[in-house]
Give the backbone structure.
Amino acid sequence: MSVNYGSKRVVVGAHYGLRDWLAQRVTGLLMALFTVVVLAQVLLTKGPIGYDQWAGIFSAQWMKSLTFCVIVSLLYHAWVGMREIFMDYIKPLYLRLALQVFSIVWLVACAGWAIQVLWRL
């Protein structure tokens, strides 16, 4: 005997749940692995770490590309987290939209700055 308590549950909202959860985990893992790689390079460098050694770590093209991927991951990680906070806690639509636009502009500016730093444009 089955009991029917009504129609199927209808899920409303943006439907970001699993995708955002997975994105947070993947970007977090990538940032953690990058941290391990950089720490290993720093610890394996002999002598005091100066500007030349630090710049040498990031001079290889593969390291610049990996660093940029990690920066993009960091920016996306930050965006997902900030968007979730805004959607959960900022109820007035105009304020939430303004904060989201400001966040996007800020994160794009950070990406541009990262490109300039990595490739000295």
Remarks:
- DSSP finds four helices and no strands in the chain.
